[in-house]
Structures are given as C-alpha cells and as structure tokens.
Amino acid sequence: MHKYLPNTDAEIKLMLDEIGASNIGELFSPIPEKVRFSGELNIPKGMTEQELDKHMEKLSKMNISMEDMICFRGAGAYDHYIPVVVNALASRSEFYTAYTPYQAEISQGVLQAIFEFQTMVCELTGMEASNASMYDGSSSTAEACTIALVNAKKRNKILVSRGLHPETRQVIETYMSGRDVDIQEVPLHEGETDYEKLAEMCDESTAAVCIQSPNFLGIVEDMDKVSGITEQNKAAFIVNTDLISLGILKPPGDSGADFVVGEAQGLGNPMAFGGPHLGFFAASGKYIRKMPGRIAGETTDDKGKRGYVLTLQAREQHIRREKATSNICSNHALNALAATIYMSVVGKEGIRELALRCANNARYASEKLIETGRFSLLYNKPFFKEFLVEAKEDTGKLNRRLLEQGYLGGYETKEVYPEMGNGWLVAVTEKRTKQEIDNFAAKAGEIV
Amino acid sequence: MSKLIFEMSRKGRRAFELPESGIPERAALELFPKEYLREKPARLPEVGELDVIRHFTELSRNNFGVDSGFYPLGSCTMKYNPKINEKVASYKGFAHLHPYQPDETIQGALKLMSDLGKMLSEVTGMDRMCLQPSAGAQGEMAGLMVIKAYHEKRGDIERTEIICPDSAHGTNPASAAVAGFDIRQVKSNKRGMVDVNELRELAGPRTAGLMLTNPNTLGLFEEDIVEIAKIIHDAGGLLYYDGANANAILGKARPGDMGFDVVHLNLHKTFTTPHGGGGPGAGPIGVKEFLYPFVPKPVIAENDGMFSLDYNRPDSIGKVKAFFGNFLILVRAYAYIRTMGGEGLRKVSENAVLNANYVLSKLKDTYDVPFGDRCMHEFVASGEKQKEMGASTLAIAKRLLDYGYHPPTIYFPLIVKEALMVEPTETESRETLDEFIDALIRIDKEIQEDPETVSHAPHSTALGRLDEVKAARTPVLKYNFGEEDQ
C-alpha cells in the first residue's frame, strides 16, 4: 500500500476477478516478452513525506536564493516583488489541478481568467488580440517570426535586431531551422538597432523585422522609425517587449506593430532558475486567425447567459495536424493566471507607478555607479530598468568580489557582445531600495 | 455569471503600494522623449485587495480540477498532484534562483537536474536526457530536430519524411511539420495497431523516422513493436517515442529496450506535476548515446562532484527555450520519483492498468469497445450505439458533468467513431471507479428512456451548453470597455 495508490490487496483481487485475470502480470501480457522489463529500476527506494521534505530542503540549500542576496542581474529574468495575493490565489487547486478548459461548463474560472489576461495584454500592448500564453518570451518571438514568414508567402527574409536577447535569437534560429528562410541580424549602433542599416537591409523579400524594446541592453528603441521602414517594405513588424515598461512607454500597437510578444515572468512569477516563465503573444486584427495556441472567446450559453470558451480552434494542431499554424499544445496557463492576478493587484495607476519606479531606480543606480569613477555608460540612450556600463575592473573579478558581499552583480556581456568591451549590464527593479543601490554602487566602485 | 474584473473597477481604488523611495522621482518626460511615452493609461482594473481575492476565489469555484473530483480524461493522465511537491517547489532555494547565477551558487539545482536526468534515463531505457523542452510538443520538435541533425551530419540528406500513425496525437504531425519534415500517415489495422504491411511499403530511403506512442492512443500495446523497429531501422530511419502514455509502462517496459532512439516524456502526465489549467508542463527528451551530441544546449556536466552547464556543443540543434528548462516542474517530478522509488513506480503502472481494465470490463456490455476486452492504462469506447438512440458522445460527456465528473476525452482518436477515451489513473480508488461506471450505465438507460434529458445536458452547471460556433464566427477575445472607460 502506498498513500498515492488506494487499491488494497483485497480490492485488487476483486478487480482482477471482475476482469477475469489471475494476476496483474497477466494484464501486461500484450507486451512482447522480448521487450518486457523484468528487472528492478535502479532508482532509490521511495521516501516518506518527512524524509523527502528534508532531502529537498537540503538540496535547495545547496543553492543561494535571491531572497538571500541582492539581485542586480536581469538579462531576461527579473527580480520584481510578488504581492502575497498572487500565490494565495494562484495556488488554489481548482486552478492548478485542472486540465486545459475544453469542458467549458466546468472550466469557466480558467476561461474567464484567460479572457481577462488577454484583455490586459491587449491594453498594455495596444493590440487587438492576445492568446492565452506561450512557453516563454523566446518561443513566442520565434512563433511570431514563423507566422509572419508563412503568411508572407514568397518573402523569405527575417531581419532580427542584435538588440534581441541572445537566447531569443538562438531560439528563433532553432524554430526556423526546418524552413526555407534567410535570417539576417541587424547590427546595433550606439546601443540601438542600426536604423539606417535596417533600412538598407529591408526590401521586398523581407517577411518580417523583429526588434526588442526595451532591448537586451535596456535601451528603448525608436519604434516609429522601425515601423516606417517595415510599412514602406510591407514587412511584418514584430516587437518583443516588457509589459511592465508599457506602464509608461508607448504601446507597440500605436507604432503599427503586427505582433507584440515577449517574456512576462516579471509579472507575478518567480525567476525559478529560468522556468516556467511566461510568454505572451498579441497580434493585430488581421492575424487573429493565424495566431498560435489557445485563445478564449466570449459567447453565450443555451439560456443566453454570458460565458467563455476556447475558440478559433480550427487553427490548432488537434484539428489541423500538420497544417496547424503551430505545434503548441500545453501552454503556461498557470503563469498567465499569476500574471492576471498580478496585473489586477497593480491596477491602472499602479502599473504606471511601477514602471516609473523601475526607470527611476535604474537611472539612479547608473548615476551612482558612474559617480564612483569606475564605470561609464556605454551608450547615452534612454533606458528602462536595465543599463550597460563599461567597468574599469574586469567584470568577472568584479562579480566574484560582489558575490562574496551578497550581491548578484550585473550580467557580463563580453561573451555575447564582444564588441562592447568589458560591458556590465545592470538591472534595477522597483524592489531595490535606495540603500541597497547606494551600498551596491559603493562596493562595486571600490578599488581593489 | 461572474463579473469581469474590469466591471468591478472603481476610479481611484487600488490594491498596490510601493514603499517610499528616497530617490528623487523624475517624471517620465525627464527620462524619455515624449514620443516614446504612452498617452492614455492602460485600463487595468482599479480594485481593492479584497476585490481581487473575492474575484479569483469565485473564479476558482467555477472551475473543476483533480482535487474537485474524478477526471478520467484519456491521454492526459489526470492523476493526483501531491501537495508536498508544491511545497518543495516553493522553497526559496529553488523558486528564487536567477538563471544566470554562478555555478557555485546553483549546485543543488544542477545536481537535481542531473539526478532527474539519470532517473528518467533509467525509466525509459535511454542513455541520456535533455531537460530543456517546455512541454511535450516542444520535446517532439526538439527530438525530431535531433533526428534531422543526425541524418544531416552523416550526409544523409534525402530523408525528409516522418511517418505517423493515423491514431497519433495532433502534435506529432504538427511538430514534424515545424521541424521541416513531410508527413506520411500509416493506417491502423483492424486490431487498432500499426499496419505493419503498410509500414513496410512506406519505409524507405526517404524515411527520417517514425513517431509512435506506445501504448498507442487506443490504449493498446503495439504488439509488433520489435518488427516495427526493425523495419524502420533497416530502412535507415530512427524511432521516436511519444511518452504521452508512459504511465502504462513504468518498470514494465522501456522504450529504449523496444528500439526507440529518441523519447519525450510529459512530466505533467506521468510524473504528477499539475496541468495548471493548460500548463506549464515539461517535455524532457531522452536519446541513445549516438544522438547525444545533437540535443539542445546547454547540457549538465559533472566533474569531480561539481556540476556545470556545458555550452560547448558544436553539433547541438541549439536552444528551444531560453535558459535550461521548466525547472520548478523538474523539481516536482524529481520529488515524485523520489517519493515512489523504483518499485513504487512499477506499482503505479500496475494500478493504472488494473483500474483501466476494471472500468473497461464493467462497461463493455453497455458501450461498444471496438478494440477488444483488454487495455493498458486507458481504453477507447464508442458511443455509436447511444448515438443511434438519440444522444451523441458530446451529450454523454455533458451529462457526466451533471453527475459531478469531468468527462473522458471525446472524439479522439479520430479512427474511432463517437470515441470516449477513458483513463482512470492509478490514484483513484475502486469506489470512485464504481460510481463512475454506474453513472455511465445510468446515462445509457436515460438515453433509452428519455434521450432529450441527455442531449440537452448539462442541467446542473451554472452555465448551460456554450455556443462555440458563435464564439468562433464573431470572435470577442477581449473586454469591450464602455465609453466612460475610454
């Protein structure tokens, strides 16, 4: 007997009698003897809950949590504060132990939450439609590129800004490796996408242009400039963005984006060593029937009452199979629920205050670092919650020194952006206090 | 029904607070050029904290999970999600790790991933695991790309076809298409298995591989698996195992021993991580040693008891997601495997198969079961007889809602008319199964006596049957704010 296996020996016998089998082994007789596994799995004996809890706690303590350090690193995962309400609600098991809401009548909770999520994403991005979520920012960006490519028929060039997260660029490459596509990287100029170069590269064979704003270096891109180029060449415009930044920054939809995608971990989801995070995917009206993944829509029941269902399923793999717009099935619904609760808590005024606090904290931190004389801003461009400085001290040494003092310092850019010298990408969320920033800057600026 | 959170919004109400900053706060205009700034605020709701609590609590009450009741959704393995796994996944040393921390601060995480990989290798009979894929479909895509990279590395570039059975999950052909393959479909024979003769015709110099779920989606073990593997390997192709149904075979049979070269597992099915209302899951892939150079990077390396992430993988297909995998899902799956142990896992499959056969045995006189009297962890019944009497499989499913059950998977696999696919899982007791069986037998009686009651079900849910056609024809995908909210 095991706590997760309720059948008693007596019941097993009764059930076998009902089936007409003499023992459980007989039920496995369809497995050809040649491939039957008759040994014991080499996996340690099971643990009780108490033993497991101790074991897991011990394993977890072999790591250093960002709760026990002060985090100034971003680069795709951000240490935002998570209001306690988020987990109190998202951990309700009616939500997390449910499957995808195909049986709408008993899944209105998840369906309505998705509908609210879609609305909030549309509000922030300025787009007409959003899906229910994607795995993460990288795959949602890759899927947007795919849809733009498939939809553009004879055009086969995708222009990807070097300002995109390096891992997102790699995921785009992987996702599109099976297709006839020419992916070209648009270089950066002074920390922004090189708009002049982009204008040269973009032509009638370009299916899409993909930029990130704020980009990987934290710098806000001039989206109107990019959309001028994409419109002229009738290429789709894909923007990867940070939803929190849109509390103050112009929605990409207002700049004519066709797809707005990105990573929304920072909205109520922990950094979790990189996953599960939350991809979002929004599109302009003309792409509604091309979007990947699940979408909730409003409808009525047989008595005319308002309700929600998964809709436009004719796009999806379980109906269209190899002709589907994407192969996605499971998504990150629970992370989207957490983000929905988070955005409800933050609210209309709060999202503006939050975005402004991040921007101010980052600006302040950059000034404090520069004041030490040991850092200089690499590019003098408007940035949101992350900024790139060049350090006098080798960034590897600098980070090791800071680690000993309890700080996770900036992200070292030298491997992924060798052209940026001894670059150090520092992220400052609303969670960082003035004192933390002051101390961090002082320690970072020490001459050793 | 419930109000939308936007309909609860009142100007000036709030649930959010920021601490005093001490840093002189500059206005947005001082930080960014005007043309970069938003003109109108995003209409997120203006609500108090208790509003948020009541709203989402109400939504949760309008939702049915495994904790609410029996959920025999075929092919989805809706088993109990242990609470201890939720607790340990929330430990700060797991939940609050930055993905780019230095190796010496993440040894526990890397060790856990390394050990999980080894245990999953043992369960599947594969040599190596890669934990990166976010879900089954992403695992399929990654696994197929590995197969492609392998053929290409050998200069074997004419292999453009993936063969899938007609009973396959939709993700199989969809993932093969994403990976850039052409899809060839192989029929099922009268006994619901891959038609080996047809497979022999299809396999050839263009075959890159075969994707197979085993037990298949009819809940049947492919009895010719050894021959199937030989046909594909002799043709120069590789075998891909869709682990959606792995709950049937833990400790009983291993894909690696059956001849599979690549597998993916759905940790959110077999290994109890919650489905989350649609996700997140995790879809790690396992490969035989000769395919290891091609798996997504980074992989975990161990050197003198120290773990690190190895990016130096020149033949890797690249990355399928940012960072390393859905780590907190991996934590839960690890906790589950350590709870069960090797012997416990075998008992999981024994009880899963026992439960499914028990339900099958008690229902087979009432509902048609086109593919025999025995099954593995799930079986597919047909509602054709009931449809002739006036209630479709959809109606039966909706009527089950009135009895307090989540219905089985319906209309899948596509090769069974009016399909009802039942997967009880091992975590359900005999009483629960008996009550469910009784409900299905009663519904059959109702159909004989009063088919209208069934065909207009559900009657007891807060909402009646929802109009899906209307939703698709005139899509309303977001809240329409009234004029005063503009």
Description:
The complex is a heterodimer of chains A (about 450) and B (about 475). By secondary structure, chain A is of the alpha/beta class. Chain A has 2 domains: about 70-80 and about 350-445, Alpha-Beta Complex (Aspartate Aminotransferase, domain 1), CATH 3.90.1150; about 85-340, Aspartate Aminotransferase, domain 2, CATH 3.40.640. Chain A has 14 helices and 17 strands. Chain A has helices at about 10-20, 25, 50-60, 85-90, 95, 110-125, 135-150, 165-175, 195-200, 225-235, 315-320, 335-370, 395-405, 435-445; strands at about 70, 130, 155-160, 180-185, 190, 190-195, 205-215, 235-240, 260-265, 280-285, 295-300, 305-310, 375, 385-390, 405-410, 410, 425. In chain A, the strands form 5 sheets. Chain A has a 7-stranded mixed beta sheet with strand order 2-10-9-8-7-3-4, sandwiched between helices. In chain A, strands 13-14-17-16 form a 4-stranded antiparallel beta sheet, covered by helices on one side. A two-stranded parallel ribbon of chain A has the order 1-15. In chain A, helix 7 (about 135-150) crosses helix 8 (about 165-175). The longest helix of chain A has about 40 residues, at about 335-370. The mean pLDDT of chain A is about 95. Chain B folds into 3 domains: about 5-60, no CATH class; about 85-340, 3-Layer(aba) Sandwich (Aspartate Aminotransferase, domain 2), CATH 3.40.640.10; about 350-470, Aspartate Aminotransferase, domain 1, CATH 3.90.1150. Chain B has about 475 residues and is an alpha/beta fold. Chain B has helices at about 30, 50-60, 85-90, 90-95, 105-125, 135-155, 170-180, 195-200, 225-235, 255-260, 325-365, 385-390, 395-400, 430-450, 450-455, 470-475, and strands spanning about 130, 160-165, 180-185, 205-215, 240-245, 260-265, 285, 300-305, 305-310, 380, 410, 420. A 7-stranded mixed beta sheet of chain B has the order 1-7-6-5-4-2-3, sandwiched between helices. Chain B has a 3-stranded antiparallel beta sheet with strand order 10-12-11, with helices on one face. In chain B, strands 8-9 form a two-stranded antiparallel ribbon. Chain B has 16 helices and 12 strands. Chain B is globular. In chain B, helix 5 (about 105-125) runs parallel beside helix 11 (about 325-365). At the A-B interface, helix 1, helix 3, helix 4, helix 5 and helix 6 of A face helix 2, helix 3, helix 4, helix 5 and helix 6 of B.
